[in-house]
Structure formats: structure tokens, C-alpha cells
What does this fold into?
Amino acid sequence: MANFLTSSIGKKFIQAVSGAFLFVFLLLHATINVFSVRDSFAGEFGSPEGWFAQGCEFMALPVVDVMVPILALGFLIHICYGIYLTIGNYKARGGQRYEVASKAASDSWAAKNMVVLGLLILGLLGFHLTHFWAKMQLQDFIGSEAEDPYLLLCFTFKNWWMVVIYIAWFVILWFHLVHGFWSMFQTIGWNSKRWLGRLKVIGVVVATLICLAFVAVAVNAFLQANALIA
It folds into this structure.
């Protein structure tokens, strides 16, 4: 087992599995957050009965308190391990850029810049945690009162430049997810021409839905904060 994990295939397998954690974490996160947009259309934005408020209550359940840190840890392992592998590949090739095995992968701009995308995602993730996690989940963890999720959304996205920063982050995330989705399945053996084409399409759809959900949340919160919609 140890030999497998230290082998080239084993390292790629770890990266693929930790990447799966990223997708699960983002799907859960996007679903809960997009409820705030639904609440706006239902006239329940800011209401404790709204879907977003209920989703935040769900996220505070003990079972979720355990699950989310595990998913988040897998997410961080994926990014940090990806940087580690890229540095190792760079040194092994005498300073040459990372080379990918297949022609399909080498044609992808995201494939050639995954480490840069990962670093940008990681840096902006830290920025994001100071806005939400530190004021909600962390407060629950230490026994303090968490801030109102609706007010926190409005306060964070009240300024247009903050919305622009977050949308830029979501675009970076989109590129990373589009390549990462099919690459993850290719690593575990789904690399036939028939499946590779399908997985690329599915990856674009999944990444687009996730990122559009996050963009909708930011834009909706901006409109709510500035009283541009009822």
C-alpha cells in the first residue's frame, strides 16, 4: 500500500480522490447558498423561515459539523498536494514546464496552469473564510452567537468591487473545475475516447452550474443590500 501511494499512479489517485471532495463540498455549499436567491423571489429574504436560513440551520447540525471539515480538509489537501506534485514534476524535468500525458490534456489551457489556478483559489479562499466561516461556523464552534446569514451576505456584497472580486474568483474556479472533473475520472481509468468526450461535456455543465449559482448569490445579495430589488 505504501509503495502504491508513493508511486506516480498513487499520487495521481490521491489527487483525484481529494478532487472529488472538492466537488462534493462545492455542490453542497452552492446548493445552500443559492437558497438565498430563491428566498428573494419568494419574498422570504431575511426571514428565519426562508430556505437559506433553514439551510444554515442544517449546516449547524452535529453530523454536518463533522462532514464539512472533512470535505474542506480534502479540498485543502487537493490544492496543496497539487502544488507539491507540480513542483516535483518541475524539478524532475530540469525546470521544464509540467507536461501532461495525453494530447487532450495538453490542449487544455487549464491543464497547463492548474497550479496557478490552485494558488489563486487557495488565496481567495482565505479571503472568503474571513467573511463567512469566521463569523458563522467558527462562532458556533467556540460557543458564540453566529451572525445573521442574510445580513452577512448583504454586508459582504454591498460594494460592487467586492462582487467583482468574487466573480473573478468564480471564473478561476470554473476553469479549474472544468479540467479537474474529467481529469479525475481519467485518473481512475475512465479514459476511453467515448467516455472522455462525455466527461468533458459533463464537467463543463457541472462547473458552470456551480459557478453560476455562486455568481447569482453574490449579485442577488448586492441588489438586496442596495435596495435595488424588493
Remarks:
- Residues 8-225 form a domain with the 3 helical TM bundles of succinate and fumarate reductases fold (CATH 1.20.1300).
- The radius of gyration is 19 Å.
- Residues 8-41 form the longest helix (34 residues).
